Amino acid sequence: MKNRKFWNWKSRKTLNRETNEEVIERILELHGTIAEESWFDDDLTPKMFKDELNAGSGDITVWINSPGGDCVAAAQIYNMLANYKGNVTVKIDGIAASAASVIAMAGNTVLMSPVSMMMIHNPATMAFGDHTEMEKAIEMLEGVKDSIINAYTLKTGMSRAKLSRLMDAETWMDATKAVELGFADDIITRNAFPEMEDDEVDNKPKKGSPNEDESTEEDEKKKSSNSVLFSRKAVSNALFNKLEVHYKKSATNVTKQAEIFAPPKTDGVSANEIRNRLDLIKKYI
Hints:
This is Clp protease ClpP. It comes from Petralouisia muris. This protein has ten helices and nine strands. By secondary structure, the chain is α/β, with parallel strands linked by helices. Strands 1, 2, 3, 4, 5, 6, 7, 8 and 9 form a nine-stranded mixed beta sheet that branches. The N and C termini lie far apart (107 Å).
């Protein structure tokens, strides 16, 4: 096998609250780089992943903490999970960046830890050769980007143009912003009111009451104002613009100071005038 195995299967017993029966929950952990080598010409690794995926049945919980990796591997894993017969719940407990964010889109439900991040950007590659080879590489990257946008738009419902701009800017999202934009469905939290007394729970606005609508609108505003959307490209451009303005001002100040301390300009004296003055001085010596 070419690639170090970046996935791990686990299982645990859980209680089905609807049927009150004990069931086996299948857990898939995707941690680290998604394939250290490309799956482009690899027949063994994708087959192994697919065989392990289909070795069991029932719902799957996929935990993701990955900076990304090979887009071909991500595409194949996305398709395998999307076509899986059971329900797939994706939980991001660290980071789902680049190719890992594509895999996350395969979940029927995508949940993010309140301290996790998601990042989307344009695909990248290395190319060598003349201008024809470079044009081929550009065309290939454009096609890969279109395929990635397909996954994003199916999940978020956003326009392709807006998603393309977010990818161009290399956009980082916290959990709140990811939910707001549709990349995730909800934020992972602990059980509500785990240690509260009954009378404290009863003080919570009841369903259908006026206070419930008010608090919901207020909560939504807070969520929106507290969310984080970070663009590395935008920050870099802002920094370079500030540096440009700063050094332009510095250069202007140096020029002004040079003009102040420069010796006064004179028109000079001709050689004939100097000679005449010397002749005049000789007469009195």
